[in-house]
Design goal:
Layout: H1 2-15, E1 20-28, E2 33-39, E3 51-57, E4 63-69, E5 78-84, H2 92-95, E6 103-111, E7 124-130, H3 135-140, H4 144-149, E8 152-159, H5 166-175, H6 182-185, E9 189-195, H7 206-212, H8 214-219, E10 229-235, H9 237-249, E11 263-267
Parallel strand pairs: 7-8, 7-10, 8-9, 10-11
Antiparallel strand pairs: 1-2, 1-6, 2-5, 3-4, 3-6
This protein binds adenosine-2'-5'-diphosphate (A2P).
Adenosine-2'-5'-diphosphate is lined by residues 130-131, 158-160, 196-197, 205, 207, 236, 238-239, 242.
């Protein structure tokens, strides 16, 4: 009996994909959104805000991979991801069914521009997101370096419906009590969730709320200023284009790892 199970374990160890990571937790928010946590490869170093390729093995034995922002901070022992579920999406139609103990495939090569290194020093950091574009900011709001570099951190998240804000609301709500990050966040972090298709406390596209000044009035803060402010944005292509236009008209300049400036952007991944 023992010999049998040892033999089976040995077989599994041989067959396991070298980039396999075990699923440690899964949480579903709506029929369109879920998050999950996996083991972290010991060798993986990344900067909060970066993304990696993850996916599942197909029947032909080859992995089907998509780019996913790492939603957990760089100090976390595990890796967290926040995903959309597309019913006929090649990857997410299957990925949405993962259970604790399953394997996913993760290529440990982190990259991306939504990193603090791509911004020049400033006083306030704005992170503007729609939908799953909140994922890289879920990492950055849990990184002490964010609060060491900026006096004030403003995170906005816009979704169609109230339930789609659950992930960001729960995460931001838990920070004050977090033993590691709580003291950094206190008095520095402002969260501004808005919905566009269902009634909630704050309504409207963030683009409109920036143009009208509503977001700044609601938060009781000064309007955007390239002298003092740095901005990161992550959402749909149309969202990124529209916000970029607003920022450039105000005198902000797009930065990159090789040339830090006053704002950076990245498309929210996995459109499927
Ligand atoms: P809206 O409902 O007015 O389209 P999606 O679920 O389609 O990815 O959209 C997520 C959120 O982003 C929605 O609230 C949507 O608002 C908003 N959004 C989509 N495009 C833009 C844009 N170009 N500028 C600002 N907000 C946008």
């Amino acid at each position: 009996m023992n010999d049998m199970s040892e033999a089976k374990q040995a077989m599994e160890a041989i067959e396991r994909h070298p980039d396999a990571q075990e699923v440690m937790a899964v949480q579903h928010y709506t029929d369109r959104l879920f998050s999950f946590r996996v083991t972290r490869p010991q060798s993986l170093r990344f900067r909060s805000g970066e993304f990696v390729m993850i996916g599942l093995l197909q029947e032909n034995g080859k992995p089907l991979l998509r780019a996913y922002s790492i939603a957990s901070p760089s100090w976390d022992d595990e890796l967290e991801f926040y995903s959309i579920k597309v019913p006929d999406g090649p990857l997410t139609s299957k990925l949405q069914n993962i259970k604790v103990g399953d394997d996913i495939i993760l290529r440990p090569k982190p990259v991306g521009t939504l990193v603090l290194d791509a911004l020049i020093p400033g006083k306030r950091l704005f992170m503007l997101s729609t939908g799953t574009g909140f994922a890289p900011f879920a990492s950055l709001v849990r990184d002490p370096e964010t609060y060491e570099k900026f006096d004030e951190v403003v995170v906005t998240h816009t979704c169609r419906d109230v339930a789609e804000l659950d992930y960001s609301k729960q995460l931001i709500g838990s920070l004050a009590e977090d033993p590691l990050i709580g003291e950094f966040v206190e008095g520095k972090l402002k969260y501004y969730p808005t919905t566009t298709r269902e009634q909630s406390e704050n309504m409207g596209r963030i683009t409109d709320n920036i143009n009208s000044g509503k977001v700044f009035d609601d938060l009781g803060i000064d309007a955007l200023d390239p002298e003092t402010d740095r901005v990161m944005l992550c959402g749909s292509m149309a969202f990124n284009t529209d916000v970029r236009e607003i920022l450039e008209a105000k005198g902000f300049e797009e930065g990159a790892n090789s040339k830090p400036a006053t704002f950076v952007l990245e498309k929210a991944f996995v459109g499927e």
